[in-house]
Amino acid sequence: MPGDRLVVAIDGPAAAGKTTVASAAARRLDALFFDTGVIYRALTLAALRHGVAPEDGLRLAGLARHLDIQVKPPSQPDGRFYDVWLEGEDVTQQLRDPEVDRAVSAVSAHPAVRRALLDVQRRIARSGRVVLTGRDIGTVVVPDADVKIWLDASLEERARRRQRDLAAQGIERSLDEVMEEMERRDRADAERAIAPMKPAKDAVVIVTDGRSVEEVVEEIVRLAGGG
């Protein structure tokens, strides 16, 4: 039987394959998959409902400190990786609403908001067997994680993946456009004052170019002692 506690932190830039790999690894490890970005989406949804502007960092941080946000194993067979509950309501589907998409970047950019949501992320991370993804998990959220992974891929490879995802949504973008946007986002994530995106010093770096999902998952499971 697996142990009651396991924390696997998987960080890396956008479109490095974190969600695909981490969700598969979590299944192999009998663990909860937790994309920490959903916490910011839950706060964004709450802000929209309470009439708090995405630019108002002070009020957003105050709201964050008093919200009840829970992440639980999936209850519906609709492809979701987890259930997200906000103030006692399952809001998993609403977190992908266009209004949330448009506002979440502004909400998550506030240092006060990032600080306020740390306790929520840490509580979920330490609730049992959890595989977390984000950009500052191994450096800020749970620096004492049992396993730390930095998942990466070349800018061109990541842009191709994002371009395919957009095309599947009916959005046509040139590769150059996607690469430029991704490079800009990488730079913003790496240069922000609070919790900049960077590998933890003791993280295992895994570059996914030319590797199958199964190969990468197998390596992570082995590092976590599950293979």
Using brief descriptors, characterize the structure shown:
CMP kinase activity; Cytidylate_kinase_dom; 227 residues; five-stranded parallel β-sheet; ATP-binding; Rossmann fold; dCMP kinase activity; 48% helix; alpha/beta
Explained architecture:
The chain is an alpha/beta fold. It has one domain: P-loop containing nucleotide triphosphate hydrolases (Rossmann fold, 3-Layer(aba) Sandwich). The protein has 9 helices and 8 strands. It has helices at residues 18-28, 37-50, 57-66, 98-108, 111-125, 137-141, 155-168, 175-191, 213-223; strands at residues 6-11, 32-35, 69-72, 83-86, 89-90, 129-134, 147-152, 204-207. The protein has a 5-stranded parallel β-sheet. The chain starts with 5 loop residues before the first strand and ends with a helix.
Determine the structural class based on helices, strands and strand pairing. alpha/beta
Largest sheet: 5 strands, parallel
Mean pLDDT: 91
Assembly state of the chains shown: single chain
Strands in their spatial order, largest beta sheet: 2-6-1-7-8
Tell me the overall shape: globular
Keywords: ATP-binding, Cytoplasm, Kinase, Nucleotide-binding, Transferase
Family: Belongs to the cytidylate kinase family. Type 1 subfamily.
EC number: 2.7.4.25
InterPro entries: Cytidylate_kin, Cytidylate_kinase_dom, P-loop_NTPase
Write the layout of secondary structure elements.
Blueprint: E1 6-11, H1 18-28, E2 32-35, H2 37-50, H3 57-66, E3 69-72, E4 83-86, E5 89-90, H4 98-108, H5 111-125, E6 129-134, H6 137-141, E7 147-152, H7 155-168, H8 175-191, E8 204-207, H9 213-223
Parallel strand pairs: 1-6, 1-7, 2-6, 7-8
Antiparallel strand pairs: 3-4, 4-5
Helix pairs in contact: 1-9, 2-4, 3-5, 7-8
